[in-house]
Amino acid sequence: MPLIESFTVDHTIMKAPQVRKAKVMNLPKGDIVEVYDLRFVKPNTTPMETAAVHTLEHLIATYMRDKMDNIIDVSPMGCRTGFYMSVYNENKKEDIQEVLIYALKKILETTEIPGATEKECGNYRDHSLVKAKETAKRVIEGFENGNKN
Ligand SMILES: [Zn+2]
Questions:
Q1: pLDDT for the residue 9
Q2: Cα-to-centroid distance, 30 and ligand 1 (Å)
Q3: What mean pLDDT do residues 37-52 have?
Q4: 13-144 has which fold?
Q5: Stretch 132-142: mean pLDDT, rounded?
Q6: What is the mean pLDDT of residues 121-146?
Q7: What is the pLDDT of residue 149?
Q8: In whole angstroms, what is the distance from residue 86 CA to residue 71 CA?
Q9: 100: CB partners within 8 A, 6+ apart
Q10: pLDDT value of residue 101
Q11: In this predicted model, which residue has the larger pLDDT, 76 or 2?
Q12: Residues 21, 149, 60, 107: what is their CA dihedral angle, to the nearest 10 degrees?
């Protein structure tokens, strides 16, 4: 399977926030899977706090699916500077960014974290809606200021 790029990207010149098409996989039967880098924080500056990342993970996964039915997975990067989103079929980076901003705006008005009970989540105590909202606000402002690509 051909990979466009992965760890070959130079993180020292990476801007944030930005949406980047990180990978396109052409599957044997003709299907396409894409992986997007939803970068919230410039690499090797101050990463997001784990509680914020965790809450954002729950909320982004929920709200982006309002607008897209081809999302396979949204998962946090271990470096806590962004998320990976896997989707099937071909998409435009600009459309993904629009849906991401929609989700972040929804987060600002959220009062409850979905799936954050002991039964539903692997670390239900490690959540912060306040910090998730602070991060969402910062990322929205970053996109609005054109600090992308
Ligand atoms: Zn969880």
A1: 85
A2: 33
A3: 97
A4: Gyrase A; domain 2 (3.30.1360)
A5: 97
A6: 96
A7: 43
A8: 6
A9: 19, 38, 60, 64
A10: 98
A11: 76
A12: -170
Gap from CA of 120 to ligand 1 centroid (Å): 7
Confidence grade of residue 148 (pLDDT, cut at 50, 70, 90): very low
Residue matched to tokens 């982006």 = 64
Residues, beta carbon < 5 Å, ion ligand 1: 121
Domain boundaries, the chain: 13-144
Known binding positions for Fe cation: 54, 58, 121
Mean pLDDT of 90-116: 96
Rounded average pLDDT over 103-109: 98
What pLDDT is stored for residue 48 in this prediction? 97
Cα 127 to ligand 1 centre (Å) = 8
Q: Which two tokens stand for residue 139?
A: 């990322």
**If 0-12 CB within 10 Å is exposed, 13-18 middle and 19+ buried, where does residue 54 land?**
buried
Rounding to the nearest 10 degrees, give the CA dihedral for residues 99, 103, 106, 107: -160
User: Which residue ranges make up the annotated binding site?
Assistant: 54, 58, 121
Q: What angle do CA 99, 104, 107 make, to 5 degrees?
A: 130
CA of 128 to the centre of ligand 1 (A): 11
